[in-house]
Amino acid sequence: MGLSYLEICGGRPLDGELEIQGSKNAVLPVLAACVPGEGVCTIENCPDITDVTDTLNILRALGYRAERAGGTVRIEASGSEKYEICGPEAVRIRSSVLFLGALLGKMKKARLPLPGGCVIGARPVDLHLRALRTLGAEFSLTEKITAVAPRLHGDTVRLPYPSVGATENVILAAATAEGHTVIEGAAREPEIDELCAFLCLRGADIRRLADGSIHIRGVRRLGPASYRMRPDRIVAGTYLLAAAAAGGRVFLRGCGGEGLEALERALRAMGAVWRKTDGGLEVCAEERPRAVPYLETAPHPGFPTDLQSQLMAALCRARGSSRIRETVFENRFRVVSELRKMGARIEVNGDCARIEGVSRLRPAVLEAADLRGGAGLAIAALQAPGRSAVLHTEYLARGYEDIGRDLCLLGAQARIRGIRCTDETKEKEEYSELQRCL
Questions:
Q1: Catalytic residues
Q2: HSE of 267 in the Cβ direction (CA atoms, 13 Å)?
Q3: Could you give the percent of the chain with pLDDT greater than 90?
Q4: Of 217 and 425, which is predicted with more confidence?
Q5: What is the C-alpha to C-alpha distance for residues 259 and 2, in angstroms, rounded to an integer?
Q6: Which of 147, 229, 245, 424 is the most buried (most CB within 10 A)?
Q7: Cβ atoms within 10 A of the Cβ of 121, count?
Q8: The pTM is what?
Q9: pLDDT on residue 118
Q10: Are 33 and 195 in contact (CB under 8 A)?
Q11: Domains with residue ranges and CATH for the chain
Q12: Residues near 128 by beta carbon (within 8 Å), at least 6 away in sequence
């Protein structure tokens, strides 16, 4: 038991550089893709985040050998006959649902609890089940999802919405199914193509056509492979938005901005300078950002919902009025009440939020309610002169290796602090004292 929080002394511009960790949203399906087939899979530049730790524990519980040495993970993908996931990890993380397609591809059956993750919306799994039924799977739903597919076969899967998870589940199941599968309306996020690239290294036959559809010819077996994860575009976008919000310069080594074209347009509209070099990507901002009159989130290539909270925080001090419409997850505005504690002027009407920029934010004790909302609060704290604290860093640890370390490398005064308590009463007292001090 204990209270962990991110302490930030804000009100100063950034100036620094760092190398971005491997992609969270890509590595989780890649780890699930180690299940079907045989041999050792080696994943380099694997981020050291709790969602990865939970995924490795799921693999171990299924009987696979999963080892980490620094940024490299090795998965021994043969030998296990288990098909049921029982551990608490599967409830904690949303990506556990990807083992549905992976286990169906290997074992022709699967059983797992309904997945968890951040509470940012309903995120039902009906699209996953409907798509996998097209390939021959049958399901029963109680407290768990139970699936059987005596014969997985190729077919045309038409997704009514470009769901990233449903697209990934179909790819994982179809890679070793009989025949030819076509996914129409497939998600276009770069993480989908990274999953396909990894599976192709293992011997899969997967192609994306110019119209966005994905074609998969099932193969009998998948073999070993070594793969290096690309930089996390959402982590990169978080730090680039931090530069636009707090001012100064941020340079991301080895990051070319792939998959962030919508963010580039938004940052340029805010007055930031976006510059690509041979060594990476640089964003500079010399003054308060300009308002963004209207922006809405959308599946790729639209503005990513995973950067919406961070953008909102960066616009709290913008000159003028900004409006954001959230079209992907209905609970992405949970961060608003915390931003208001800092003096932000935000009005929410349904799926739209209007942000009236203020000249100054004040420091506060803030409570993160989800991963990306916590990152948004960190950006807000960078803009507020004085000491702020973002509580519940367990959310941040799901997607950021060490956000305190990274912000320091970018020139901020930030660190993760912890209060160790022996009982709940003492923890509440420490929490109250923290609020009083800050």
A1: 118
A2: 30
A3: 84
A4: 217
A5: 37
A6: 245
A7: 15
A8: 0.93
A9: 43
A10: yes
A11: 2-21+231-437 (3.65.10.10), 24-228 (3.65.10.10)
A12: 97, 100, 101, 163, 165, 166, 169
